[in-house]
Amino acid sequence: MRVYDRLTGYEVLDFFGSFYDLWGPKLRERIAWAADLLHIEQSVLNKQVKDMSTGMRQKIVIARAILHQPQVLLLDEATAGLDVFARRALLDFVRAYVGLGKTLVYSTHVMSEAQEVCDRVGFVDKGLLVYEGSLQEALELGSGNLERAFIRRLEQAA
Amino acid sequence: MNEILIIARKELLSVVRERRVLFTTIILPIVIMPLLMFGPILLFGNVVQQTQESAQKVGVVGVPAVVLEELRKARVEPVEIANPQQVVQNREVEAALVFENGTYTLYGRLSGGATQSALVVQKVQGALRAYKDQVVAERLRAKGIGPEVLEPFKVETKDASREQEKAAGLFAFLIPYFLIVFIQAGGMPVAVDATAGEKEKGTLEALLAAPVPLVQILLGKGLAVFVMSLLSTFAAIAGLLLGGGVLRNFFAEQLQAVQDGENSVQLGGALALDPLGYLSIALTAVLFALLVIAIMISLGLYARTFKEAQSYMSPLMLVMIVPILFLQFSDFLQLQDWYFALPFVGVVLALDSIVKGAATAAQLGTTWASTLLYAGLALYLAYRNFQREDVVFRN
Fold first, then answer.
1. What average pLDDT does chain B have?
2. Is A4's CB within 8 Å of B203's CB?
3. Which chain A residue is nearest to residue B213, measuring alpha carbons?
4. Do the Cβ atoms of B3 and A7 come within 8 Å?
5. Main-chain dihedrals φ then ψ at residue B170, nearest 5 degrees
6. Report field, pTM of the whole predicted structure over 0.80
7. Which residues of chain A does B210 touch, with a Cβ-Cβ cutoff of 8 Å?
8. Regarding predicted confidence, which is higher, A150 or B146?
9. B126, B73 contact by CB (below 8 A)
10. Which residue has the higher pLDDT, B26 or B37?
11. Alpha-carbon distance B251 to B271, whole Å?
12. Which of A47, A125, B113, B278 would you call most buried, defined as having the most Cβ atoms within 10 angstroms of its Cβ?
């Protein structure tokens, strides 16, 4: 959750948004859109980052990344260190963002999360992609369990 | 250009929110510097005044009654003692006077700078001088000769310094010192925070991933450091002027006491420059700030952590102060124009010459051109550092 801790959430988004030709009303509108998508309240946006919880910081980091509405977004261990509510909000965001027609690459060690949010699954072992397929195909490989599928695939590869 | 301003604004906002940094760069110079500069002098002034007005004990051995009377007139209290060296050392008396075989020997604690004992010794010397003049005058009179025979001619000494130099007083030395120290001290916290600080906190990656040219990020950070450097410098000079004004208006008596002493100190002072002189100081300071900032950013980008950056930048202060120490002896040197092209030294010499009203166009031109060149080189080095992944991600 590395973000300028002496700026407020809004200032962080304003700062990074300015680099993507977003100005004035357009920038404010985009910040409101990202805040809404991530369920960030106005009171949180007005807080300095150093006074925020880990979950709130994570939301600000993600809001910063989606301000310019990238077609592809990569999240790496995005729920690490988050409490139950923050984790739930983040997983909801993943589905919502994909629902906007965007691609989201979700890297995680938590198979249940992958099972919940992914349409396609890839297994990486020692830096190599050892499996890629739809969620349905991966579940079939693991008899309905993604973790079992991962272990079986690695055993097959060995 | 816009991106540069956005980045500078972000850096300044971060600094403004850090009360510690704001205090040390802006508040401290205004409040503390006058106290540091004038406090000891003021205290010394008080001591001098008190010593002159009150009577101190002076040990005497074999001193004639007529001299004892002169000592009392000079506001000292003679007391009979046995061992002059010991009583002075033990601070039982401030000074001791021994008369033996036609010689007066005066004891005092004279090592270690300005001591109260030294001031009392001056009082005793004054009393002895008065007595000596009296004796000589009496002997001459006895032989029918007037005392004016001892003074066949008068000697007058006049200060031929330029008006600016006379008016500048302590400022002649302090202005270069303050500009140099505060340009670095004011900019350092921002320079460290904006470079090594961002690396250490891990926020630099996000900034580098934003669609902003590296050179604009660099210039934005540089602009923030520049603003803080100048603010800190203005604060220090404002503090100094404030302190000088308070001293002259409210502590005139103590000031007079110090300035009337044998080793008088010209306190405070005021810049008596024409607008071109002030502009020259400002331009020299700005160019110097560019050079220092470029060096600090270059070092900060190379450093892995906040602490490492500070340990690289602190010696820079020593490097810059050395020319100021030599400045005290600049009058003994035959200044050549090329001295003004030397890094740091040139700036110090130029500032000193401007304040004293002695700067020539060639000297200033040399300093400005060379400082701009050095600043450009340092900025290019910082840019090269910023381009190198092995430097930026040197964790």
1. 84
2. yes
3. A19
4. no
5. -65, -25
6. no
7. 16, 19
8. A150
9. no
10. B26
11. 20
12. A47
* CA distance linking residue B190 with residue B10, whole number of Å: 11
Q: Strand order of the sheet with strand B95-100?
A: B76-80, B56-61, B95-100, B103-108
Does the pLDDT value for residue B267 go beyond 60?
Answer: no
CB contact under 8 A, B13 and A19: no
Which of A4, A48, A51, A62 is best to mutate for the B interface (most B CBs within 10 A)? A4
Residue B59 and residue B91 in contact, taking contact as beta carbons nearer than 8 Å: no
C-alpha distances (whole Å) from B284 to each of A157, B8, B125, B354 are 70, 23, 48, 10
Q: Which of residues 178-217 of B touch A (CB under 8 A)?
A: 201-203, 205-206, 210-212
pLDDT tens by residue, A79-127: 888 888 888 988 999 999 999 999 999 999 999 999 999 999 999 998 9
State residue A23 phi and psi, 5-degree precision: -135, 155
CB contacts of B2 in chain A (<8 Å) are 18
Locate all alpha helices (DSSP H) within A18-158, ordered by sequence.
24-37, 42-45, 54-66, 84-99, 111-117, 135-141, 146-157
In B, minimum Cα distance to A19 occurs at B211
Average model confidence (pLDDT) across chain A: 91
- At B179, the pLDDT band (50, 70, 90 cuts) reads confident
Distance of CA B343 to the CA centre of its chain: 21
Read off the tokens for B219: 């210039």
pLDDT tens profile B112-121 = 766 788 889 9
DSSP-derived secondary structure for B97-159: EEEETTEEEEEE---SSS-HHHHHHHHHHHHHHHHHHHHHHHHHHHTT--GGGG-SS------
d(CA B56, CA B77) in angstroms, rounded, equals: 6
Report the SS3 class of residue B17.
helix
Residues in chain B closer than 8 A to A72 (CB atoms): none
| Chain A positions in Cβ-Cβ contact with residue B212 (cut-off 8 Å) | 19
Chain A residue nearest residue B205, CA to CA = A2
| pLDDT the model gives residue B284 | 92
Integer Cα distance of A116 and A90 in angstroms: 12
- Compute how many other C-beta atoms are within 10 angstroms of the C-beta atom of residue B195: 28
Which pLDDT does position A75 carry in this prediction? 92
Query: Choosing among B9, B10, B13, B221, which should be mutated to test the A contact, i.e. which has the most A CBs within 10 A?
Result: B10
Which is more confident, B236 or A148? Answer: A148
Question: Could you report the predicted ipTM of this complex, rounded to two decimals?
Answer: 0.84
- Residue A2 to residue B202, Cβ atoms within 8 A: yes
Of B10, B205, B212, the CB nearest to A7: B10
Contact predicate B297/B195, CB 8 Å = yes
For residue B11, what is the enclosing H or E element? helix B2-17
> Tell me: the pLDDT tens digits for B75-118?
999 999 989 999 999 989 999 999 998 899 999 998 876 678 88
Cβ-based contacts of A19 with chain B (< 8 Å):
3, 6, 210-212
Residue of B nearest to A3 (CA): B203
